[in-house]
Amino acid sequence: MTWLALILSLLMSLPAWAEDPARLDLGGSALVTTGRGWGGPQPLELRLSLTKPVPYRTFLVDGPPRLIVDLKGADLGLAHPQDMFGADNAPAIRWGAYRQGWSRVVVELPGPYRIDRAGQAARAALSQITVALAPVAAEDFAPRPSATAALRDLPEPAETPDAPADEAFTVVLDPGHGGFDPGALAEGESEANLVLVFSLELRAALQARGINVVMTREDDSFVALERRMTMARQAGGDLFISLHADALPEGQAAGASVYVWNPSADGRATEQLTLRHERDDLMAGMDFSGHDDALAGVLMDFARTDTQPRSESFARWMTSRMSLLGIVMHERPVQRATYSVLKSPDMPSALLELGFISDHDDRANLLNPQWRERMVRAVAEAIVGWARDESARAAMLRR
């Protein structure tokens, strides 16, 4: 029996229950305040984003007050609860396997609460469980009578080792345009300058968080599109982000948006890459010299089966953070496109439109240091959270 036949035989023999569990999308999950506390705890809302709907149950226990959310057929992986947006709104959050087929989330509450409402709604490829909590007086708190029984069998959270210092996560920031190519122009402002200013501020924020940052340009200079990806690959980039602030006729578009590669264009992209690049510059760590275009194309398409979902995951992290920090987004915040800077088969990539320079409000935001600071925080938190999530998933694969 060949190896291929053996693998197919093993796959066909898997039991029916060996389906993929619902997985936590940490980038789309959050614990947020939804109102004022008037001197006491604030109303809270827990949002758990999963890759598909699951049966669930919620209840409260005391000693101290805690919210319990049990999820059937969900895998919370090795993601750290403290990396969830708004985790500092609660004294502590834990999660882990509860019993066969179940996972449990425990949120320690800052006081007595009631469950105001709970529901599950499907959104595109994800499902979101939302639990709204309202603070109550101590005498109105109605937890389950046995907290010990409710919390039985919950393991300690899994720990993942920190990456060695020489394996620091590297982000490549690509401020669009530059030099004799100013990009979009409006009211005396140029896209090239606005995105450069933002990129420099984002670099400082990322470096303060321990992220290694490489920039394709640090001044008003021109860098060819294909050269930008070459620089990213030579730097050993783990994530590539191109930054823009385009222009459209007035009234046609406003708000931030994120673009990822369009998989339907893979064949054309592969052909263009093999024609435009040296054979040792198509994928990091691989030299295609002496191999024909067909082999190079197959290997690059195979690599995209890994990088494409990771790029899309990062786009969700980014739009989630922007939404939670009140950043106005385009009506379609995540879109697919065939931009040259998104072609790389071996590196997760995204293009961030910070807004449209042609729109009065977007242009004012880009010129406003307070807005830029908020946007920098959104992007930086998305990068850090996504990087940790990637590390946790990689550790699971190694097992």
Automatic annotation (TrEMBL):
InterPro entries: AMIN_dom (IPR021731), MurNAc-LAA_cat (IPR002508), N-acetylmuramoyl_amidase_3 (IPR050695). Residues 1-18 form the signal peptide. Coiled coil: none annotated. Its EC number is 3.5.1.28. Pfam families: Amidase_3, AMIN. Residues 229-384 form the MurNAc-LAA domain. It is an enzyme of class 3 (hydrolase). It catalyses: Hydrolyzes the link between N-acetylmuramoyl residues and L-amino acid residues in certain cell-wall glycopeptides. Keywords: Hydrolase, Signal. It comes from the Bacteria. This is N-acetylmuramoyl-L-alanine amidase. The lineage of its organism: Bacteria, Pseudomonadati, Pseudomonadota, Alphaproteobacteria, Rhodobacterales.
